[in-house]
Amino acid sequence: MKSAVSSSLLNSKILLNPNNPLSRLKSVFLPKLSLRPITHHTLTLPPLRSISSMASSFKPDQARVPSALPLPAPPLTKFNIGLCQLSVTADKKRNISHAKNAIEQAASKGAKLVLLPEIWNSPYSNDSFPVYAEDIDAGGEASPSTAMLSEVSKRLKITIIGGSIPERFGDRLYNTCCVFGSDGELKAKHRKIHLFDIDIPGKITFMESKTLTAGETPTIVDTDVGRIGIGICYDIRFQELAMIYAARGAHLLCYPGAFNMTTGPLHWELLQRARATDNQLYVATCSPARDSGAGYTAWGHSTLVGPFGEVLATTEHEEDIIIAEIDYSILEQRRTSLPLNKQRRGDLYQLVDVQRLNS
Questions:
Q1: Residue 233 catalytic?
Q2: Can you tell which superkingdom this protein's organism belongs to (predicted)?
Q3: Is residue 73 part of a domain?
Q4: Fewest beta carbons within 10 Å, which of 235, 266, 294, 326?
């Protein structure tokens, strides 16, 4: 290596020697360079589309049909919600009294909105639904469960999402959630839209459709604590319903539910967080407490999820009353940070709200 380097340096010196005849050949191989002034040319580019114009071309307003409603200003920004995870027995009178006491406890702890579980006045079984069903429209003695909810909501001046009870309407049975305002009046009635018909071999088989009829109407209601979309248990699996509620301006989705020991550990929290994250709103759920000796064993774990998909409050499977704060001002913060509504591709897909479109 050393000899090769030395040889290279020696040859360079010889070539650079002006007395060397070979150096005269440089003019043949190296043309003379002349310095000329550099002319600057301006490159004209087509104007770049702004982000807003690009978003406009994506037609985000057309991703919802009819167009999504703006988020309404809520009657209040902050309030406490109470989730009453209750034990349920075969004694209907006891169940009604027990639910009443739980609502009163939640209100005494500052809850302005109270959520009850799915089927809180009856065992969860196809055999029980016809026996425990009530005529909600008739009220009074024909519906002692809703009569209690009306009385308590008015006396305590709170809003109650009354979980669900079996409802008898003519010759049909429904799984129905009643919403009572702080004046004791029935604000809305949601009949479970998606019936719980599943068959997981070796795990669980249940067919609500053997006794129950599916509801036909999404339910969103304006209350003293904001605009609330209602679903019951299995309804939470269908993101389209939650998307419709969000497009109608919901602040909060409430799902009384009784997931089981097979799907509960896998899907209960996952689905709540998904519905909250996708739609950038609050999601609250309320389950019955677990009774391992019952024919149907509930998973429990009633939960409040925030608009970023964060679990704000939850519990295990025993009886419990969860009190947690809802702050609607966070909704706009999250939607500003992640402006999904302005980024939807209405040029590629649409969600049609059939009820609004036909009204």
A1: yes
A2: Eukaryota
A3: no
A4: 266
Active site residue 154: no
DSSP three-state, residue 211? coil
What residue numbers bound the domain in which 202 lies?
A: 79-358
Residues 243-268: tens digit of each pLDDT = 999 999 999 999 999 999 999 999 99
Q: Could you tell me if residue 22 is inside a domain?
A: no
Our answer to whether residue 319 is catalytic in this structure is: no
Asked if 88 contacts 144 with a C-beta cutoff of 8 angstroms, the reply is no
Mean pLDDT by 10 residues, the chain (359 residues): 41 46 42 46 50 74 97 97 98 98 98 98 98 97 98 98 98 98 98 97 96 98 98 98 98 98 98 98 98 95 98 98 98 96 96 96
Q: What is the pLDDT of residue 11?
A: 44
Q: Please provide the DSSP assignment of 145-179 as one string.
A: HHHHHHHHHHHHT-EEE---EEEEETTEEEEEEEE
Residue of 192, 254, 269, 286 marked active site: 192
Count of residues making up the chain: 359
Number of neighbouring beta carbons within 10 Å of residue 140: 10
Tokens of 295: 């024919």
- Residue 41's contacts (CB-CB under 8 Å, 6 or more residues apart) are none
pTM, entire model: 0.85
Beta bridge partners of residue 204, listed in sequence order = 200
C-alpha to C-alpha distance for 209 and 18, rounded to whole angstroms? 106
- Of the listed 84, 118, 177, 189, which one is catalytic? 118
Give how many domains the chain has, as a whole number: 1
Residue 134, domain CATH: 3.60.110.10
- The active-site residue out of 177, 233, 254, 286 is 233
Give the largest Cα separation in the chain, rounded.
Answer: 126
Q: Which of 257, 317, 253 is nearest to 81 (CA)?
A: 253
